[in-house]
Amino acid sequence: MGTIAVLGAGKIGEALLSGLLSGGRSAEDLLFTERHPERAAELESRYGITNVTIEEAAARADLLVIAVKPQDIDPVLAELAPLLRPSSLVVSLCAGLPTSLFERRLPPNTPVVRVMPNTPMLVGEAMSAVSPGSHATREHVQTVTELLSCVGKVVEVPESQQDAVTALSGSGPAYFFYLVEAMIDAGILLGLPRAVAERLIVQSAVGAAKMLDEGAGHPVLLREAVTSPGGTTINAIRELENHGVRAALLAAIEAARDRSVELGRAQQQD
C-alpha cells in the first residue's frame, strides 16, 4: 500500500489509524490531516503519526483516505485536485457521496473506492462495504479490502446499494444503542439499579451478537428458542408487535436511506 494519508482525523479517521497500527503498519508509513491544532497534537502524541497539510499528503501518500463530513468535502477536493499524483488511490469514507462526485472533481482517470464503515471500527469490529468507481481496478478493491480488514469485516457491494448500506450498517450501531438504552431504562423502571440493568443488557447483547456471528441459527430460530408457549418472552413480543416496533424499524431505516440519497444529490448540484 505504500504511504497512507487519512484526510480528516475525526472518530472514524482516528479509528482507522489506530487499527492500521494494531495491524502492523509502521507509524512512519501513516499521515493524517487535522485542521484543529489541539486535536492534531493529541493524535501525534498518542500514535506517533505525523500531521501534515493536504499538499504534503498528496505529495507523499500513495493512498489517500478522505474521512471528512459530507458537507466539508468541497474545500478538500478543491485543494486536493491540482495536487493529486496520477498513481494515487482515493478512498472515500464520506456518507452519501458517490464516486462520480470525486471522479468529476479530481484529475481524469483517478481511481476511487467508496466505503461505508461504521463506528465499531473504534474497537476493531467495523462492518465496511466497499464499491469501486469507474476507474478502480480489482487490485484497487483488494488493496482497500486489506486496509479495512485491520479494523473489522469487509463486504463488496455495487455502488447502487451504498445508500441502503449506509442506512442499515452505517447507522446501524445507533439503533442497537437506542434499544439498549431503552432496555436499561426498563430495568430501572422494574426496580433494578442502573449499573445492574446495564450489565445485564450489555452482556445479553454481546452474547446474542456472538451467537449470530458464530452461526448458531437464523434470528427467527434463535428468538423462538427463547420463546416458550405462554411464557414471559411471548408476552413481551406481543407488546412489541402491538406497538409496531417492526414497522417502525423498517420506516426508520428507509428514512436513513432517503437521507443518504439526499446528501449525494445535494453535492451533485454544482
Secondary structure: elements and pairs:
Layout: E1 4-7, H1 11-22, E2 30-33, H2 37-47, E3 50-51, H3 54-60, E4 63-66, H4 73-80, E5 89-92, H5 99-105, E6 112-116, E7 126-132, H6 138-148, E8 152-156, H7 162-170, H8 172-189, H9 194-213, H10 219-226, H11 232-242, H12 245-268
Parallel strand pairs: 1-2, 1-4, 2-3, 4-5, 5-6, 7-8
Antiparallel strand pairs: 6-7
Helix pairs in contact: 7-12, 8-9
Structural class: alpha/beta
CATH class of the largest domain: Alpha Beta
CATH architecture descriptor name of the largest domain: 3-Layer(aba) Sandwich
Distance between the termini: 33 Å
> What is the CATH third-level topology name of the largest domain?
Rossmann fold
Got a strand count? 8
Shape: elongated
CATH homologous superfamily heading of the largest domain: NAD(P)-binding Rossmann-like Domain
What percent of residues are in strands?
5-15%
Summarize the structure.
By secondary structure, the protein is an alpha/beta fold.
How does this structure look, described?
- This protein has about 270 residues and is α/β, with parallel strands linked by helices.
- It has two domains: about 160 residues, Rossmann fold (3-Layer(aba) Sandwich), CATH 3.40.50.720; about 90 residues, ProC C-terminal domain-like fold (Orthogonal Bundle).
- Helix content is about 55%, strand content about 15%.
- α7 packs across α12 and α8 packs across α9.
Notable characteristics:
Rossmann fold; 12 helices; 270 residues; alpha/beta; ProC C-terminal domain-like fold; 13% strand
